Amino acid sequence: MAEVRCPMCSKPNPEEAEVCGICGARLKPLIIDQPPQEQPPDKSEERRPEQGVEQEEGLDWLGRIRAEAESEAPKEEIEPEETADEAVSPDWLGRLREVDTTEDEGPPDGEVPDWLSAFSEDVGEVGEPEAAEPGWLERIREIKATKAAEGEEEAEPVDDWLARLREEQELIPEDLGADEIIPEELPLPAETLAEEEVEEHVISPIEPMDLSLEPSEIAPSEAMADKEAPPEPRDILPDLTEAAPPVTPSEVELPSEVVGEAEEAAERVDEFETPIEDELPHVPALILDEGEETIGEQPSGIDLDSIELPGWLSELRETAPPEEVPAEDTSLDLAPATLPSWLEAMRPIATFRSAVEIESVDEQVVESAGPLAGLQGVLMAEPVVAMPRAATVGAARLEVTERQYAQAELLHRMVEEEERERPAAAAHRPRVPYLRWAIGFLLVIAVALPTILSFRVGEGFPLPSYMPRDLESLFKLVEGISLERPVLAVFDYTPGYAGELNAVAGPLLEHIMLRGLRVVTVSTRPTGPLLAEGLLSRVGVNGEGYVHLGYLSGGPIAVQLFAAAPRETISRGFLLPGDMESQSGWQSPILEGVSQLSDFGLVVVITAGTDSARTWVEQAYPWRGETPLVMVLSVGTEPMIRPYYEALEPQVDGILTGLPAAVNYEQYLGRSGNAIARWNAFGTGMLTIELILLAGVIYGAALWLLRPRAVETRSERDG
Amino acid sequence: MAELTTLDLVGTITAALLTVMVLSYLLGDNLFFRLAVYLFIGVAAGYAGSIAWYNVIWPGLIDPLVSQGLAGILQPSNIVTIIVPWLLILLLLLKVSPATSRYGGLPLALLVGVGAAVVVGGAITGTLIPQSLAAMGTLTPSTLLPQAGEEIIVWFERIISAIILLLATVTTLMYFRFTARRSATGEARRSKLERIAAVIGQVFIAITFGVIYAGALAATVVILVERIQFLRDVVSSLLTG
User: Fold this and answer.
1) B151 and B70 assigned to the same domain
2) Which of A637, A666, A661 is nearest to A492 (CA)?
3) What pTM was computed for the model?
4) Which residues of chain A have pLDDT under 50?
5) Which of B44, B74, B104 is the last residue of a domain?
6) Which of residues 188-207 of B touch A (CB under 8 A)?
7) Nearest Cβ partner for B219 among A448, A500, A681
8) Does residue B219 lie in a domain region?
9) Does B145 touch chain A if contact means CB atoms closer than 8 Å?
10) In this complex, do A636 and B133 lie within 8 Å of one another by their Cβ atoms?
11) What pLDDT shows up at residue B46?
């Protein structure tokens, strides 16, 4: 099935469609050659609806060609004007004079103009020779055949009227070129023409209608170029009629065929002027200002310079002569007569037929939409096409899932919230921590009361009477240490834990010092040596009972190095006695005979951290030999270190942790130290904490018991 | 002696004030608490720096250079103890500049590598293997069977302890076992036995953390008591003159 492509949107349409189903553009151009009711439908257009499109396209290229040719046209058109001024006929007429009348009709071989030869070649290539015969010749042939049938044969040959034409050539007006009056197709051989059975296609590049400057051939470019005084098609015809009196058939005595043809042409012109205007459709104005009826005037309110015109139109505007060209001159500068042969050969077939009616200047509307808005006499754009409208064919519908829709809504809300101006937030009133205050004050009071009131030992909380097995073994261990070997005390805790660890480690260190054991301190923390001095200074004398090796930097590596080679790890001491300030701590008599870790009689690690305790256990274990390791720990660290002590082969030989153990140790020593002094306060504090925990548990249990009932009651009310 | 007493008195009063300032956090975050915290941080950093200088840098790096001179430094015995540490320190200082920071990778790699090796090696040889052997040793016949002359109650206690120790060790390890079979529905689920063991292990873990928390709480109370006693002593000393 043949399809017709829309000239506007290039969409395929059915062959019989007159209007594009996509954009609404007209597919079949309107023909103004004859009134619709009189002119039979063009079969060629019926067969090839796209031909109308080609015609429109042909108009476009023709307009461009003419615009291009205008730059060259003066050279070519000056000549016929000059020859007209000199009353010299064109070359082909001159050659016609030299042609022997006895010869066959038509120009001799080689005298055929280039454009015709090229055209003939083109026709031959197309394979439709009958289409190369102009319509007027066809009609002449029909008349001739009619006359022949009636027995009225012409006595004079064609050459006779040509001869008369030579005689009457001086009658031709100067301002009208001969080639514009008599078509060049006339010299065609009659036999050749007789053999061609042309019925429909008129492919002559220059038709009689061309002489009258068919409105369809007024390209938009020319209209633009001459917008100051554009050629008005309606005026051109009278001008031509006025300019052509010398060549009217009555005066020139043209052959009867030509006379008949001229009469028919005149009739067609008359028909073209009057009934067609009434009957042919025309394009209504989209926006028509009644005060702007002339083409050349720029419509008010529309600045053509500000309108973005197509490239080809802008070029035409630039190349267009600014001078106002008279209508007569425009009629004389007909581009079809000056087209070069090569261009004529390229001209498409049957593109000169006017497809649409060109209205008169008065009725021509000003284009009001599109890029040509404001121009008058432009190619008609169908209102349906030019009017802005919604697409008749719906665009691809976006299918959105619920999730995508929800996300889009969420995004929309987020954007709206971002744009929304938030009110200034009211100053947040700090919430009074009543609960924290209550707990804090309870603890302070619970701890302060026994301390301030200075309860005597045994008046408050009774001292623990049970001696743990761990403490007993530790006590025995300390008692078994040789007096010849010093004790290494590692102070690996920070001042924050001094309040606890000093109280716990105090009894042990006092026991060691009371036994006469020498103590050597070291610490992997910078504050450790100072804490050691603060604790040991209570029970001993620096330099005599103890010595500080100081800070051991390097973490686990340093511990391992110290365990392997203590003397090479620490080369100096801390707070050495006055006589040893310039010496190393290793020169103290306390460290005499100590070169490795196993040379110490006991290693006591006082720490509040699990990592520190484990480091000493792990790194010192291979080098300490038979030297026992005792851990003095904070209460929170004990659970992580006790496995080393509870093992069948313990890595920790003794453990002392917590204030109760310290109280037990002091009791075992028979001395009342800091541990016992803090026992009552510690007891009331722990009791207070236990009560607080108990109250919290009761409160939580009450909430847990009351909440389900409230939910059930609420659900029963609701439901 | 009088100067020392005055210095001690000033130090004691300052310590008491700082203690009160820290305890003021009970009322909420305030200027006095922040002032005390900033002071502690600054004093601790300065003190640590001075300790590092006098105990590490000066005796280990500067003093050998000063005391032994260039000739002593170049002795073969001092190359490892003086030259190499200085070279590593200089390379580590190159980390300051991005252009030369890659040269500081050598001492950094040495520190990280040696540190990791020491820690991991110590953990394996000092904790993992001994603790595993200790856990396995609780089931040995010599452990479970009653010792000669041992009371039954003591033997029974040891048996209960061994069972609890074994149960706690196994169930705690089972709790930290995160591998499971994937069912037909794609859900990774452990077997019922593993889930029960994990629950028991979770109970032991909770008990352990509870004990740790209780110990921390007890330690805190002891520290509070020590501070209250200190304040009492200061006040009493000030009042009594």
Assistant:
1) no
2) A637
3) 0.56
4) 33-54, 58, 73-90, 99-108, 110, 120, 122-131, 152-158, 174-252, 272-301, 324-331, 351, 355
5) B74
6) none
7) A500
8) yes
9) no
10) no
11) 93
* Whether residue B143 is found in the same domain as residue B69: no
Q: Which of B74, B90, B125 is the last residue of a domain?
A: B74
- Is there a domain that residue B103 lies in? no
Task: Quickly count: other Cβ atoms within 10 Å of residue A355's Cβ.
Answer: 23
A437, A448, A574 ranked by CB distance to B26: nearest: A437
- CB contact under 8 Å between A553 and B208, yes or no, is no
- A contact residues 552-581, partner B, Cβ 8 Å cutoff: 553, 555-557, 560, 570-572, 574
Is B130 within a domain? no
The alpha-helical segments, DSSP class H, found in B53-151 are 63-73, 76-78, 84-93, 105-123, 129-137, 141-144
Are the beta carbons of A601 and A482 closer than 8 angstroms? Answer: yes
Q: How many domains does chain B have?
A: 2
A550 touches chain B (CB under 8 A): yes
ipTM exceeds 0.95, yes or no: no
Sort out which chain A residues have CB atoms less than 8 A from B27's CB and list them.
Answer: 437
Q: Is B102 within a domain? A: no
Between positions 60 and 89 of B, the ones with CB within 8 A of A are 60
Domain extent for B240:
138-241
Q: Is residue A712 packed enough to be buried (19+ CB in 10 Å), middle (13-18) or exposed (0-12)?
A: exposed
Q: Is the separation of the CB atoms in A673 and A518 below 8 Å?
A: no
Tens of pLDDT, residue by residue over A623-675, are 888 899 999 999 888 888 988 998 878 899 999 998 989 999 998 888 888 88
Whole-angstrom CA distances from A598 to A516, A548, A566, A603 are 20, 18, 10, 9
The CATH number of A453-677, from 3.10.580.10, 3.40.50.1220, 3.40.50.11780, 3.30.870.10, is: 3.40.50.1220
Q: Which residues of A touch B218 (CB under 8 A)?
A: 635-636, 658-659, 682, 686
- Are the beta carbons of A624 and A598 closer than 8 angstroms? yes
Nearest residue in chain A measured CA to CA from B127: A618
